[in-house]
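Hi V.,

Quick status before I head out on leave. The structure for the redesign project is tokenized and pasted below; the design run finished overnight.
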């Protein structure tokens, strides 16, 4: 069974690999997609820094400082908000022009993505501002769980981009 650090390393590596694939596949098609993928990259890098994953590992394992946690939480919320208010709804609207099946796929992916938002919001509420020492006892576990949710979210977002890419619906 993987310990938390091993799990975070696996998740961090997977997110970075999938991000590179997404950038290769959809990067350069639209500025809005490029900006979104850039914001995702910043989230993943900050996640890796907080988790102390290579190349950000330290000699001795310790909790990150509050300023870094707050920066990550803000970036995560900005990323999630951009998806909900700039990307997903626009894609759903455009998919309506490609027929019922395409719209149905996009709506299902959107629903799955939306379910991941609560985990990000809960993490933010718990850690963004002056987390207590008692609260920080759960930090590694919560960060690991958030990483799994982020990985799932990014996978669904990539599937949503694939729907758009295959049907050329995003203007």
């Amino acid at each position: 069974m993987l310990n938390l650090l091993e799990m975070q390393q696996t998740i961090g590596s997977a997110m970075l690999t999938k991000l590179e694939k997404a950038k290769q596949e959809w990067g350069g098609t639209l500025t809005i997609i490029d900006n979104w993928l850039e914001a995702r990259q910043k989230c993943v890098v900050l996640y890796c820094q907080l988790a102390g994953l290579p190349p950000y590992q330290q000699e001795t394992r310790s909790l990150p400082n509050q300023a870094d946690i707050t920066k990550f939480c803000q970036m995560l919320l900005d990323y999630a908000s951009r998806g909900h208010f700039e990307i997903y709804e626009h894609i759903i609207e455009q998919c309506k022009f490609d027929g019922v099946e395409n719209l149905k796929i996009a709506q299902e992916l959107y629903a799955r993505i939306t379910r991941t938002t609560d985990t990000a919001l809960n993490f933010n509420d718990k850690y963004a501002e002056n987390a207590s020492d008692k609260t920080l006892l759960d930090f590694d576990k919560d960060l690991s769980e958030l990483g799994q949710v982020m990985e799932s979210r990014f996978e669904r977002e990539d599937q949503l981009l694939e729907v758009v890419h295959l049907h050329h619906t995003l203007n």
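Above is the designed sequence. The chain has a mean pLDDT of 82.

G. will cover questions while I'm gone.

Best,
W.
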